[in-house]
Amino acid sequence: MKRIQIHKWIIEYNYNKTKEFYKNFHLITDGCDCLNCKNFVEAIPVLPKDVITFFESLGIDPRKEGEVSEYCENEDGTHLYGGFFHLVGRLISGPDVWNKNDESGTMKSLDKDLYKIENFKFGFTNEINLARDGFPEPILQIEFEGIVPWVISEESGKFI
């Protein structure tokens, strides 16, 4: 495991095990055929290079495994997406991106603590959701939110 600091977090992660899992896993669109997921996968090549480099530096292929949601369309035609991916690793120190609200017990994002790259925000959490069967342990979850262009035709699901 390699130990690195990313913004306010120190994590340990295994790049090779993470990359190997993603190499062998199917595209998000093989598990969901909605236009929002299809657009996310097809838009990966046009996302800012620094965002893709960040995912890849952790061994993550953002076209695969993750949980992705489209939240809204922006006035300029881009879309706000959010979701999470997994990597083989653990959070050593830094704020958990999700924090329990003392009154209601619900979770809330700590937006001020997020790591920003271009039009994306990232954070780490120990709250592991929907990890795929066979994902190597220990598992660390990376949350994201970002602006993604719409690159497919809504009628056909094909590239615009």
Give the gist of this structure.
By secondary structure, this protein is α+β, with helices and mostly antiparallel strands. The protein contains three helices and nine strands, in the order E-E-H-H-H-E-E-E-E-E-E-E.
Distance between the first and last residues' Cα: 42 Å
Low-confidence stretches: none
Strand content range: 35-45%
Number of domains: 1
How many beta strands in the DSSP annotation?
Answer: 9
Query: Helix- and strand-based class?
Result: alpha+beta
Helix segment tally: 3
Largest sheet: 7 strands, antiparallel
SSE pattern: EEHHHEEEEEEE
Rough outline: globular
Helical percentage:
10-25%
- Rg, rounded, reads 16 Å
| Mean pLDDT, all residues | 89
Structural features, described:
The chain is an alpha+beta fold. It has one domain. The protein is built from three helices and nine strands; from the N terminus they run E-E-H-H-H-E-E-E-E-E-E-E. It has helices spanning 15-24, 35-43, 49-57, and strands at residues 2-6, 9-13, 67-73, 79-93, 98-100, 107-109, 115-117, 120-125, 139-148. The strands form two sheets. Strands 1, 2, 3, 4, 7, 8 and 9 form a seven-stranded antiparallel beta sheet that branches. A two-stranded antiparallel ribbon has the order 5-6. It starts with a strand and ends in a 12-residue tail after the last strand.
